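User: Batch of two.

Assistant: Item 1 of 2:
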Amino acid sequence: METMVDGAVGVALRDGGTEMIRLYVAACSERMAPLFIGMRAGAAGREADVHFYVESVRDLWFADRPLADAAERVRLLDLFPELEPTEEGITDPADTYAFFAVLVLRYALLANGAGHDDQTDVLERRLSGLRRAQSQQPGVGARYDPPRPTANSARNPRC
């Protein structure tokens, strides 16, 4: 069921244009950054990943233009352990939070580099993901399934 906030945000994003969408995804990514940083900052071998995450969130705030390397950043994020499929899924709460933080950044980068119609499609998936993340119970498990092709993805294969 769509909430009043979801509806209002959806209207604002559809009517607000590309820069509004870029600001929105920057804010969403920044909101998730403490989870990724908190769960991965002290982990051995993850220093470069944390730096990359922080740098990407920072660069998303330059909302007046798309990131020239958004597609490359998505490709690099896809190499993060959090997005590597596993048979058993993710059951550890810390890993679950880090997974959702990486997934949010991935969709933010996709939306940043996409055209307005494609951005709206990515954001609708993002809002659905946030609802799932908020309802996720620790220990239930999370699983990353790569995005399925949509009508818009024919024009923008990165989605």
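Item 2 of 2:
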Amino acid sequence: MQRNGAGFEPVQLRQVWRSPWWLTLQLAAGGPDALRSQVTVWRFGQPPQAWRALRLCANRLPQQVRVQNKDTQ
């Protein structure tokens, strides 16, 4: 993640919301109180192999990170 022209920082994936058409990833840089950003990745914007790889990675995450939709928080 890059903020305000600064260098890149490592991020931690905090939560994933899934649908057949998109994945929304909640990312945070730093500790538990760090600013969080959400990024939505749309299926139609990705090559099929990249979409499958991203979905497989999301399925391997611990259950506490995975959420089916945003209304379940």
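The chain has a mean pLDDT of 80.
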